Amino acid sequence: MLLDKKLGILGGGQLGKMLCQAASNWSLNTKVMDQKNFPAETIATDYIVGDIQNENDVLRFGRSVDVLTIEIEHVNIDALFQLEIEGIEIHPKPSALKLIKDKGLQKQFYKKHNIQTAPFELYDNKAAILQALHYGILNFPFVQKTRSGGYDGKGVQIIRNEADLVLIIDATSVIEQLADIQQEIAVIAARNKSGEIKCFDAVGMEFHGDANLVEELVCPASIPKSIESKAKQIATEIIEKLDICGLLAVEFFYNKDGSLWVNEVAPRPHNSGHHTIENCYTSQYQQHIRGVMNFPLGSTITRCPAMLLNLLGEEGETGDAKYQGFEEVIAIEGVFPHLYGKKETKPFRKMGHITIIGETLKDIVQKAEFVKNKLKVVAK
C-alpha cells in the first residue's frame, strides 16, 4: 500500500515540520534529515542528523526511504542524480531541481518556451556588470540576482543609480530590467504522476522594505479574473514542462501596463501557501504529499478570504525567543498563529506565521492590524 511507504524529506525547517504534520493525519511515516534542533525534529516519525549538502549523507538517507522529496532547494544535487540512477523515486526530479537552483537557467528556460519574464542578461562577476554599465550596454535601474544560493530576499539587489553600485554582489548573476509592478502575486500548482494538475487561487504579496522578503499576503489577490486565469495557465504549463510532481510555487510580476511576468519558481511548499491550512479544503502540505505519493489531488477551493502575516524577529533583538502578546492574539476568533519552534530569534528571521480568516476582507484587515501591533518576537 502507498501508505506503507516511507516518505523522506531533505530539510527539517518549518516547511519540513508542516509536511510532517500533514503526513501524520494519515499515519504516513516520515523520515527527515537536517541539523540538530530544527523545527521538524520533534514532529517527524524518524529524524536523522546530517548535512543535506553533503553527498554521502544524502546518499545514505535517500537509500533508506521509498519516496524522497525536499523542503528547500539547497541540497546536494549530485547525490540526487545518483539515487535516481539507483531507482529511488525523487520529487522534484534532479534535472528540474538543477535548473531551478540556477536562476540563469530558469530565465533561459522561460525564454526558450516563450514564457514572459523580465528582460535579462547573464554576467560572470561584478567587474563584468560594471563594464557593461561603463559602455552603456546596461542602464539604471536594474535588479541583480545571484544565480545560486539566494533565498528569502538574500542574493537580490536593486541598483537604481551610481550610489547603489557598492551594493553589487561579486557573483555570477542575472541582471533584470526593473519591473514597473502593480502587484506581486503567486500561484501554487500541484501535479501527480498520473498527470492530474490543480492550482490554488492566486495570492497578492507585500514585501518587507528592509528584509526584502514577504511580510504579508492576501487571498484572493486583488487582480482581474483574466489575469488570475492567465497566471494559473502559465503555472500549469511550467509544472508540465518541468515534469514536476508535488508542488510548484510560481511568483509573478503583474505590471502596470497589464503584462504578467514570471519572476521565479520553487518546487516545494512555499510561503505563499501557508494560509491554505486554514482557508482551503486541502492545505499545500497535504497537496504536496498527494503529488509526490501519486494520490488523487485534493480540492483547491478557497473557503473564505484570508490574510497571512509572517512573524519576523524584531529588529535589534537577538537571543532566546520570547513571544510578546501571544495570549491576546490567540483569543481572537479566526486568528491562527503557527510558531516554528526556533529557539533563537534574530532580526527579520522567520519565526512563524499567522493566518487570519473571516467573512470579509475588511474584518480580516482590522484583526491583522491588532495582531501586527500586539504580537512581537523579542529576545528574553
Which oligomeric form is depicted?
single chain
Tell me the major beta sheet.
Answer: 9 strands, antiparallel
CATH topology of the largest domain: D-amino Acid Aminotransferase, Chain A, domain 1
Euclidean distance between termini CA atoms: 48 Å
Within CATH, the superfamily of the largest domain carries the name: ATP-grasp fold, B domain
Number of domains: 3
What is the count of DSSP helices, taking H or I runs of 4+ residues?
A: 11
Query: What is the helical fraction, as a range of percent?
Result: 25-40%
How would you describe the overall organization of this protein?
By secondary structure, the chain is of the alpha+beta class. Helices cover 27% and strands 29% of the residues. The protein folds into 3 domains: 2-90, Rossmann fold, CATH 3.40.50.20; 119-177, ATP-grasp fold, A domain (Dna Ligase, domain 1); 181-379, 2-Layer Sandwich (D-amino Acid Aminotransferase, Chain A, domain 1). The chain has helices spanning 14-24, 55-62, 77-85, 94-101, 103-112, 126-134, 225-241, 276-279, 284-292, 326-330, 361-374; strands spanning 7-10, 30-34, 46-49, 67-70, 89-90, 120-123, 142-146, 156-159, 173-177, 181-191, 197-199, 203-207, 214-219, 246-255, 260-266, 306-312, 319-324, 335-339, 344-345, 350-357, 376-379. The strands form 4 sheets. Strands 10, 11, 12, 13, 14, 15, 16, 18 and 20 form a 9-stranded antiparallel β-sheet that branches. Strands 3-2-1-4-5 form a 5-stranded parallel β-sheet, sandwiched between helices. Strands 6-9-7-8 form a 4-stranded antiparallel β-sheet. Strand 4 (67-70), helix 3 (77-85) and strand 5 (89-90) form a beta-alpha-beta unit. It starts with 6 loop residues before the first strand and ends with a strand. The mean pLDDT is 95.
